[in-house]
């Protein structure tokens, strides 16, 4: 490994500089640069088509980049693929488990691809099933498991080689709230064990929960970078008052509200008013006799950051 490689290894688990992936004239990933530190939980947040999965696939060494620099644990995944993959755990967007095999056998068969011996894999599979809260399902066929169980099994499978870095592409898409919370809990435990997590998501609450730091992506580019709280501080107010006047009146009410808040966003079904004191703002709305049909005050979120940066919602 080069001297630079050693240096990067100290500070960056993943280093990307001007990373690009073109499909013909279309830039799916348009020259992005970021670093992921050891033990960090790092997020790629953006709407569908932002380029998150493409970035993940380049990190995992399953997709060739068009240009730019990419190093994973100090190595180029294109030229040092087997070594990089041996240190990575990959949880793809859709569970590609072997449905006909039992849960435990899925782990063992996957581990065999890494050339791991059965004497290691059998106890490891039991340990991972316990971690994934699937011990009771060890002998159940995958096609009989719930969506949340399959997701946890896919994560367990990604851990079979004791990776230092776990790549999770949309880990909770399609799961119900309870299943999401169980999964987040397992990811927190991995983080406590020092595993570096790289997570793509289009759920702002997931990014807020899981990520120490994240990049916000849109159209293949990074539009902002920071911790969830620093991004909210930088791009939004502390609170948001949401008011609904009904679809007929919403747009017409904006002029009446304009001078009350520094920033106003009009969505099809509601108006968002940004202020540090949301309750005070709402009181003023009522004092003016504007009487929204419904109203609420909430904390600013990464959704508000995305809206501010792109003028669009994270989820179409
Ligand atoms: N093989 C391909 N050929 C052409 N375009 C592609 C190809 N793969 C991805 N794209 C395009 O690249 C863009 C980025 O896709 P990508 O899957 O990385 O987005 P994403 O942010 O992960 O979104 P999602 O959450 O929907 O997976 C999209 O516009 C997609 O249609």
From TrEMBL:
Location of this chain's protein in the cell: Cell membrane
Single annotated GO MF: ATP hydrolysis activity
The entry's keywords: Antibiotic resistance, ATP-binding, Cell membrane, Membrane, Nucleotide-binding, Translocase, Transport
InterPro entries per record: AAA+_ATPase, ABC_transporter-like_ATP-bd, ABC_transporter-like_CS, ABC_transporter_ATP-binding, P-loop_NTPase
Domain spans labelled ABC transporter: 14-244
GO CC term, one of those recorded: plasma membrane
SMART domains with a match to the protein in the record: AAA (SM00382)
Gene Ontology BP terms: response to antibiotic
Topology in membrane: Peripheral membrane protein
Family designation: Belongs to the ABC transporter superfamily.
Name of the protein this chain belongs to: ATP-binding cassette domain-containing protein
Taxonomy of the source species: Bacteria, Bacillati, Actinomycetota, Actinomycetes, Propionibacteriales
């Amino acid at each position: 490994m080069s001297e630079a490689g050693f240096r990067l290894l100290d500070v960056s688990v993943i280093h990307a500089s001007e990373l690009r992936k073109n499909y013909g004239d279309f830039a799916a990933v348009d020259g992005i640069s970021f670093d992921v530190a050891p033990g960090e939980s790092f997020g790629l947040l953006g709407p569908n088509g932002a380029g998150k999965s493409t970035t993940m696939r380049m990190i995992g060494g399953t997709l060739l980049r068009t240009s730019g620099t990419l190093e994973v644990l100090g190595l180029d995944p294109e030229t040092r693929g087997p070594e990089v993959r041996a240190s990575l755990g990959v949880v793809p967007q859709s569970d590609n488990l072997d449905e006909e095999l039992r849960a435990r056998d899925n782990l063992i068969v996957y581990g065999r691809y890494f050339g791991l011996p059965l004497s290691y894999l059998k106890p490891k599979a039991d340990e991972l099933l316990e971690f994934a809260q699937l011990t009771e399902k060890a002998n159940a066929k995958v096609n009989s498991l719930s969506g949340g169980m399959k997701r946890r099994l896919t994560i367990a499978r990604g851990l079979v080689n004791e990776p230092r870095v776990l790549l999770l592409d949309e880990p909770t898409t399609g799961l119900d709230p309870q299943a999401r919370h169980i999964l987040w809990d397992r990811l927190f435990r991995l983080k406590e064990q020092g595993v570096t997590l790289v997570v793509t998501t289009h759920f702002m609450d997931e990014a807020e929960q899981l990520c120490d730091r994240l990049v916000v992506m849109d159209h293949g580019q990074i539009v902002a970078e920071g911790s969830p709280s620093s991004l909210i501080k930088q791009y939004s107010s502390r609170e948001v008052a949401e008011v609904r006047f009904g679809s007929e009146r919403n747009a017409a009410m904006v002029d009446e509200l304009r001078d009350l808040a520094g920033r106003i966003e009009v969505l099809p079904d509601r108006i968002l008013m940004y202020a540090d004191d949301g309750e005070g703002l709402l009181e003023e709305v009522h004092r003016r006799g504007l009487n929204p049909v419904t109203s609420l005050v909430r904390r600013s979120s990464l959704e508000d950051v995305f809206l501010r940066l792109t003028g669009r919602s994270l989820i179409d």
